[in-house]
Specification:
The protein is α+β, with helices and mostly antiparallel strands. Helix content is 26%, strand content 26%. The chain is built from five helices and 17 strands. It is globular and about 60 Å long. The N terminus is likely disordered.
Length: 265
């Protein structure tokens, strides 16, 4: 489960922002892969056994979701008590299955379709899916490796700079850059506390790591330059300055007497 969550491929757009090319123009799911999705879904354990849930995979033109995906998975359910939680539970299992097959996902709760009924069940929500191109897959893989190397450097009486050096060195060795303006943070009485966990400072610099200290490791690794912009009207969306793809994984870690313990990922 840990390794599968690390490979999650969630997208806001299934598009290369540099070339403005949508993934579905050059990357396609096969009929066999689509059939395997149906088979896998039937094996998932429901949260509530007496609520019937089914999925239907449709072409993207049969929904209002226009994010560059190739297909949408429509979720249908009996509308009994807690049916939404039940769909969320099954959908999470499906999400993890898809990422294990190099298929990107986007939950699109506001999406609409004219296919409101399927096998006498009601339409509830949808998930957009698309095949992930190889270069995006490599970026995700290297970002995962960066976090793992950062974790390996989390040792009592070492420095936060040791984590930064491990992450930055691996990213640069693969031709990527590390965002300098956004980093991890301490966790204590408040969710976001000091110290700021940089991924660009030198080895043996920064705050000393001591047993009991809790913080996040969440580097943003860019395929292009490290500069970012935050000029979206919503005030929180972060984009790369050059429009190149970026990936990020996050873990919450506690420093122990002998190393570290991952608390959340």
């Amino acid at each position: 489960m840990y390794n599968m969550i690390f490979k999650r491929k969630s997208f806001h757009l299934f598009r290369d922002n540099k070339t403005r090319t949508y993934f579905n123009e050059n990357n396609h799911l096969t009929n066999e892969e689509l059939e395997d999705i149906y088979k896998a879904f039937k094996t998932f354990i429901p949260l509530i056994k007496d609520i019937k849930v089914e999925i239907k995979i449709v072409q993207n033109n049969l929904t209002t979701c226009k994010r560059g995906q190739e297909y949408c998975i429509l979720f249908y359910s009996e509308k009994k008590d807690n049916y939404l939680q039940n769909i969320g539970y099954s959908g999470e299992q499906l999400d993890l299955y898809l990422v294990s097959k190099n298929i990107g996902t986007l939950w699109f709760g506001v999406g609409k379709t004219e296919l409101l009924k399927y096998n006498e069940l009601d339409f509830v929500t949808m998930m957009a899916i698309g095949k992930v191109p190889e270069r995006a897959e490599k970026l995700l893989k290297v970002t995962k490796e960066c976090v793992e190397l950062g974790l390996a450097a989390a040792k009592p009486w070492g420095h936060l700079g040791d984590i930064a050096d491990a992450i930055n060195s691996h990213a640069q060795a693969n031709g990527y850059s590390v965002v300098e303006d956004i980093g991890g943070h301490g966790i204590g009485l408040e969710f976001h506390e000091e110290p700021f966990v940089s991924y660009s400072c030198p080895k043996e610099s920064g705050v000393l790591m001591v047993p009991g200290m809790v913080f996040t490791i969440e580097p943003m690794i860019n395929m292009g330059r490290c500069e970012i912009q935050m000029n979206d009207p919503n005030g929180w969306t972060v984009r790369t300055e050059d429009g190149m793809p970026s990936a990020q994984w996050e873990v919450t870690v506690a420093v122990t007497d002998t190393g570290y313990e991952v608390l959340a990922y």
